[in-house]
Design a protein that fits this description.
- It is built from twelve helices and 14 strands.
- The protein is α/β, with parallel strands linked by helices.
- The two termini are about 30 Å apart.
- The strands form three sheets. A six-stranded parallel sheet has the order 11-10-9-12-13-14, with helices on both faces. The chain has a five-stranded antiparallel sheet with strand order 7-3-5-6-8. Strands 2-1-4 form a three-stranded antiparallel sheet, with no helix packed on it.
């Protein structure tokens, strides 16, 4: 089968690889109909992720049809159209039983060497009972693929911030949220925030992303325009009630701190590869709540699917996936994606 293979830093090729086979009774083999390219794939390709073993199939977002089913798989059958969570869940370990499937003790990340990635014609999905979900037939691949990672991750950043605010604060109608980083994940977080926040600011350095955020009703702020100053000025010097930090960089986290009000909340889903230095006096004075970390897709899947269907009917997802290409053009897609940032 054809597969997208990372041979080394910034070296990506299309190779023929053996079609995957069932390796455990909890496995499923799917024929991929669509696979997504994520910003974290760019980080892996560029060598930012430490201790990466090279020469592996990359990718962790896939939609397809079930072709083979392990003997212990009960929730999926041959012929089902499915979407795979980027996190695997055994549904049995200490973390899975405590609604933290993103830390599953048996799950291994796709596309970083531990488990073959899914940017290939076929893919093996381990722990399928907790990792695969039936895809609604009325949603196209370009929309349902957002359920692998993009929507659950953006939604989780929103949910973590929202739930961190006290109920007394939620009673006010003038709630403000800032989204730092408006790539695909950021835009999903932004749409989630717009369900409950009166005012949502979109912060990014790419104008096309800001334009799409503005089309949803957000207020666009370019990074070059001192967004923290604008947010503070619009909130009587307080800052935003919540900030979604999507990027995963020290600069993005610092900007989030600068934007959030005392007693506010920051939900961070960005993968922080670098050491973070924060001024203790600032976080002490902020009294803010922080929540970081990897998304547990299984726990938010149903909530996200409701939103996906709603936004699809409202036309908000039209053109969201800007480019689709055959697997043979994957290298060019990586080049194009890297030019606009992750």
């Amino acid at each position: 089968m054809k597969a997208v293979v990372v041979k080394g830093p910034n070296q990506i090729v299309i190779e023929d690889r053996p079609k995957p086979t069932l390796q455990a009774p909890t496995d499923v083999i799917i024929k991929a109909s669509a696979a997504g390219l994520c910003g974290s794939d760019l980080n892996i390709l560029s060598g930012k992720r430490p201790n990466t073993p090279w020469d592996f199939i990359i990718g962790h977002e896939v939609v397809g049809t079930v072709e083979e089913v392990g003997s212990e798989v009960t929730k999926i059958k041959k012929g089902d159209r499915v979407v795979s969570a980027f996190t695997q869940s055994c549904q049995e370990c200490w973390y899975c039983l405590r609604s933290l499937s993103g830390k599953c003790l048996k799950g291994k990340p796709y596309g970083v060497g531990a488990t073959a990635g899914v940017q290939s014609e076929w893919a093996r999905i381990p722990l399928a009972n907790g990792s695969l979900f039936k895809a609604p037939e009325d949603l196209p691949d370009e929309e349902i693929i957002l359920m692998c990672d993009v929507l659950p991750t953006g939604y989780t950043a929103f949910k973590n911030a929202w739930l961190s605010l006290p109920d007394s604060a939620k009673n006010f109608k003038d709630l403000t949220c800032v989204v730092v980083g408006c790539g695909p994940v950021g835009l999903m977080g932004l749409l989630s925030a717009m369900e409950v926040f009166k005012t949502v600011y979109a912060v990014d350095g790419v104008q096309d992303r800001l334009d799409r955020a503005a089309s949803y009703g957000a207020i666009p702020l370019h990074l070059s325009e001192n967004p923290a100053e604008t947010v503070l000025g619009a909130t009587g010097g307080r800052g935003a009630d919540a900030v979604l930090e999507i990027v995963g960089s020290p600069a993005a986290l610092q900007l989030s701190l600068d934007c959030v009000r005392p007693g506010g909340a920051i939900g961070s889903c960005g993968f922080h590869y670098q050491e973070i230095t924060i001024q203790g006096t600032q976080i002490w004075a902020k009294n803010a709540t922080f929540k970081f970390g990897r998304t547990s897709v299984a726990e938010v899947y149903d909530e996200c699917l409701v939103l996906l269907k709603k936004w699809s009917k409202e036309g908000k997802l039209k053109g969201f996936v800007e480019r689709t290409s055959p697997i043979e053009d994957a290298a060019q897609c990586y080049d194009l994606f890297s030019q606009c940032g992750s």
